Amino acid sequence: MIYLDSAATSRYYVPVKDFFKNPHANHALGIKAQKEMDRCREIIKKYIHVNEGIVIFGYSSTDLANRLFNHPKVVGNGVFIFGDEHESFYQYDNPICTSYVFQIQTLVNNITGIKKPLVRKMENTFVIADYTAAIHHMVLPDNAEEYYDAIIASGHKFNGPQGTGFIWISDRLQKYLGGNICGNNEYGFVPGTPNVNGIFAMTEALIKDDYTYIYSEDLLKSLKTVFNRKNIEYKIIGENTNKIAAINAIYLPGINADALTNYLSTKAIYISPGHSACAEASDYRVLNSYGLTDEEAACTIRISFDSQNNYGEINELAKEISYFTDKFVK
């Protein structure tokens, strides 16, 4: 199998340690589980370079975004959202609002890999950052609390298990939300019994930073060399902008991305078309925001790397794209 779709769901390779007891239980095993969760909170704060605030665990960045933007103190407030944001945020777009209390910033676009410039938080605006596509793919900003009031991420995007995620909330935003300070039910955000096993595995995956961004730069250079050698016509969206190498939207003129994706899967090669897996098949909103027409977007694939990919896989991918083009396109 050649897996080049880590931006959709990354490969999970962190062993699970057994903290199966309920951390809400007032006995030795429950207390041990609670201490493990608190240890994970501090590890995450250190990893994302913040010194204040709280870390809340949930099921994914989408789940936690929904909980934040459906909070009674947030509903009805203006949310400023750029056109290329992930669906979990974009659904809260309110274009008729003229007064914004919240601003969303995805640090790295999940389809193109293009980086967003840092935005310092303002006195009357809370800035929410989505780190999901950035973790393990770039060096994260220092002193993040100077820029953001919340940072959110999904564990399954950085080699953690599915059904895990976290959101860091600054002291300022926690005060605005009126959250409790004792931590019960994830500070009132997520009721029920936490998935302590998943939280531990997600945290271990986070700090197992495999420097994918270093490997990805070499893999992307290799891909471009092989594509050129095999005369595959292509264009990397945002190539001359500030982007990461691990996530790449690649326009292949005349080649339908869905058809190519399906063909490659029969060869056990897995990539994505250019539209988000979280959106409708014909939703090219993100690629449109970067200047592509619907016709061009329909011919755009996404290739994303992790540290387990190698040059041989790139060669095999190019060989099959070349074959597909010769047999079904030309």
Description:
- This protein is an alpha/beta fold and 330 residues long.
- The protein is built from 10 helices and 12 strands.
- It has helices at 28-47, 61-69, 87-90, 171-177, 196-207, 212-229, 257-266, 285-289, 294-297, 311-329; strands at 2-3, 54-58, 78-80, 100-106, 126-130, 150-154, 165-169, 235-236, 247-251, 269-270, 272-273, 300-304.
- The strands form 3 sheets. The protein has a 6-stranded mixed beta sheet with strand order 2-7-6-5-4-3. A 4-stranded antiparallel beta sheet has the order 8-9-12-11, with helices on one face.
Using brief descriptors, characterize the structure shown:
single chain; 330 residues; alpha/beta; six-stranded mixed beta sheet; 10 helices; 12 strands; 33% helix; 15% strand
Beta strand count? 12
Helix and strand element order: EHEHEHEEEEHHHEEHEEHHEH
DSSP summary: helix tally? 10
The stretches of 5 or more residues where confidence is low (pLDDT under 50) are none
Secondary structure: helix percent: 25-40%
Q: Let me know the average pLDDT.
A: 87
Distance between the termini: 27 Å
Please describe the biggest sheet, giving its number of strands, its sense, and whether it closes into a barrel. 6 strands, mixed
Blueprint of the fold:
Layout lengths: L1 E2 L24 H20 L6 E5 L2 H9 L8 E3 L6 H4 L9 E7 L19 E5 L19 E5 L10 E5 L1 H7 L18 H12 L4 H18 L5 E2 L10 E5 L5 H10 L2 E2 L1 E2 L11 H5 L4 H4 L2 E5 L6 H19 L1
Parallel strand pairs: 1-10, 3-4, 4-5, 5-6
Antiparallel strand pairs: 2-7, 6-7, 8-9, 9-12, 11-12
